[in-house]
Specification:
By secondary structure, the chain is an alpha+beta fold. The protein is built from five helices and ten strands, in the order βββαββαβαβαββαβ. The protein has a ten-stranded mixed sheet, with helices on both faces. The chain is globular.
Length: 229
Amino acid sequence: MKNYIFNTQSSLWGEPECIGFGTDDFYIKEIDRELADMTIIKNHYSKKVVSIAHHKLNLGVFYNKKMMGVLQYGFAMNPASCGNVVKGTKIDEYLELNRMWISDNCKKYAESQAISYSIKYIKKKLKKIKWIQSFADERCGGFGIVYQACSFDFFGEHNSIFWELDGETYHNSRFTNNNDRKCIYFKANKHRAKKNILRQFRYIKFIDKREKKNCLLDEKPYPKHYKND
């Protein structure tokens, strides 16, 4: 099948395993979680990855055979909240794009093209997935312009609290687990932390178009991106 990338090892069940999608010079392909985590921690502005309980899929972004980025798909912070977004959604029927980093040295419009390729891959590999959610953070700039380019629907914005402490940034919800080592450390040092209130913009891509009518959120017009983008 054109543009799909398959495992070169033979399969006992007919078609070889699909492991990616793209062209010779630009493609996405599944990679090990360890490599994906290491890349995100080194390069993503958050310097963090989601917990393994929220994790599902690691995709490397390759340009001229060199890995230039990573997309990590998984669940929302509250995985079961999917039914509050799209009525009737089961936990294995949606994904959230938790982390994305692509090098500035990659090709022009690499972010939107990588997302588009990843969606085509998900359609083939994870056939139960009905919709994909992602949040554009105010720190990224552009109010989610890459999602607009990929024809995601926009479902409004909300303010989230983030804390900066010792060079790390944490979402406010992180500090509800009293058994978490970093949570304990943060609470003991909260007086030193800087509080930031940032806007987050929710985008949803309906792979199964029929599911849009079950969405419990109100669709909004796209927000205008920064003038200098």
